[in-house]
Amino acid sequence: MRPRTTGEVDLDTSVFRLDGVTKRYGDLVALDNATLDAGENEYISFLGPSGSGKTTLLRVIAGFEAPEAGRVFFNGKDITNLPAHERGIGFVFQNFALFPHLSVIQNVSFGLTHGKSGLNAAEIERRSLEMIEIVGLSGMQGRGVDQISGGQRQRVALARTLTMQPKLVLLDEPLGALDANLRGRMRNELRAIRERLGVTFVHVTGSETEALAMGDRVVVLDRGRIIQIGTPGEVYGSPASPDVAHFLNRFNLFEGKLAKGTFTGPFGAVPAAHAVRSDRDIYAVRYDRMQAVDPSAPVSGPAIRARFVASEYLGSSVMNFFEAGDGHVIEMEHHLSLGAPQTFEPRQDYLLTWNPEQAIVFGREVA
Amino acid sequence: MSGTVTIEKRQSRTTRWLLAPGIIWMSLFLVLPILMIVYVSFWTQTTFNISPEPTLASWKLFFSSDTYTGALWTTIRIWLIVLACTFVVGYPTALFVGLFIKSKTLSTILLVICVIPFWTSFLIRVLAWRPMLGKEGAINIVLQKLGIIQQPIEVLLFTELSVIIGMTQIYCVFMVGPIAFMLSRIDRNIIEAARDLGAGFGRIFWKIIFPLSLPGVVVGAIFVSVMVLGEFATSGALSGRKVNLLGNIIITQVGSLKWAMASVVGVILTIVMGFVIAGFLRIVDLKREL
């Protein structure tokens, strides 16, 4: 894996490129002028809420949908008008779409047997068995696909696509149909398989943890627009807009007003030295940067009075939920590695405070 | 432990109660009559009387008479032809209704349209073919007016052809329904996946769509077979009594009070149907597929 510090890709190693792709369904704009570059041997996650256009974008790249405007390039060629099966792009469906009446190996070899590979039966079997071994299903090739578990079906779907040796594999919410435990394991497996084969994966997900954990780069979508492209660290550390911060589900967002380097919100006026340009004035503080103290205790930074509602034990950390005067829920995460969690009295008021230098300020007025 | 036993006991008692009406009904009105028919087929038949002395006379008569064995072969031939015709006409229709039409509402409407002829009685549906196929029927008139033929086509009515046409029309929908149902259950993503893997339409049809619709074909074929093998009305009304099926023989024999011979034909027909159904069920494991 090459280190990547920005969202830019060298054009000469670009595997696919979207240029101003727009797609409408009636009045609904599913994709609005999407432009994106993807390099060789890369794991890209598309992150967005449902209806953000991430699946549409994937289907446009695959060739299942035709865009109204814009071009799609793959391997340096314009493939906008090429039918799906001539693109050489693999697609793994959300529900796996395995052929239910065929065995594991018949599923995996389907493309080689019935496509235009021109290989003989022995070669097809050799390649299929090799791919079955890569995805970790050795010995299962004779089973019917209704006799294997969900995670194994996921591997069959992946192997079926990978035997065609695509340079680009599109995965539509590949882990959505699996239970939580399996999801974690498949996450590592998908990365490992990808690194072994050196193929570019594009992975669509609605889960921010999945996108951050798996992507070399994360593409955040909202209402048909790409609103941020960057490494997981960039996206997590400096979200480009309040919407991105919202999707990451890791920030308390406060509305207010930014004027002359000062943000005025429900917690009073706080100096804001740096601000990110945005169409709204929003003050964002990460859950794990919040601290709760007794209301009578002295605080140095900004603070907001809120009532403790409930807490949730997450294994490695504890989430505490507070409610501010205006009904706004504020979340505070305490990592247990930092020590035993504080205990809070239900329906008691506390002061929530944070270091203003760690907050992210979005505003129309940027100093 | 005692709790488990009670629950099991209660469950088995419930099972017995639920099964009882069906078992009683089937025993009284299916198993018993069939046993009776088998028994009667060995009775001694005289011109005006029948007595329960056992004899093989009726069985010997059946297999030594060309009329009776001929009817057996005609029945099997018409059954095979009608089965093939309903499949050839029905499968594309089902493919269109069940797979190509994306809207569920529209495909339901089309299936209902297929069933509309059933709103009239069976006999009317059969007899309506006479003014269509007759020497001065609709088809001959139209073809003559168009100048395609000079003389009316006479083979259209009161021949084996007219029986086949009539039966195909009447039983086609029993083929369309089950196949369309199986086709509509196919996940569209599977077809998209097969296309994405480079398979052409022909390959996708033969390797994916057809195998997945096979249970529907088998159910449809069983429906059509059972009904065609037991047919007598269509052949009676559209063949001018020239085509005699086993069903027609039973009707005539019962009409002349030849119960023993009617029973022989009935037993043979039941055995044929049994083999046909068993044969179809060997093709697919319906319990697993449906």
From TrEMBL, chain A:
Signal peptide interval: none
Domain of life: Bacteria
Gene3D superfamilies: P-loop containing nucleotide triphosphate hydrolases (3.40.50.300)
Domain ABC transporter: from-to ranges: 16-248
GO biological process: quaternary ammonium group transport
InterPro entries per the UniProt record, alphabetical: AAA+_ATPase (IPR003593), ABC_SmlMolc_Importer (IPR050093), ABC_transporter-like_ATP-bd (IPR003439), ABC_transporter-like_CS (IPR017871), P-loop_NTPase (IPR027417)
One function term, GO molecular function aspect: ATP hydrolysis activity
Keyword terms, alphabetized: ATP-binding, Nucleotide-binding, Transport
Pfam families associated with the record: ABC_tran (PF00005)
Lineage: Bacteria, Pseudomonadati, Pseudomonadota, Alphaproteobacteria, Rhodobacterales
UniProt name for this protein: ABC transporter ATP-binding protein
Automatic annotation (TrEMBL), chain B:
Annotated membrane topology: Multi-pass membrane protein
The keyword Lipid metabolism belongs to this UniProt entry's keyword annotation: no
Listed transmembrane segments: 17-42, 78-101, 108-128, 161-183, 204-229, 259-284
Location in the cell: Cell membrane
Example of a GO biological process term: transmembrane transport
GO cellular component, one term: plasma membrane
UniProt keyword annotation of Transmembrane helix present: yes
Protein name: ABC transporter permease
Organism in which the protein naturally occurs: Paracoccus subflavus
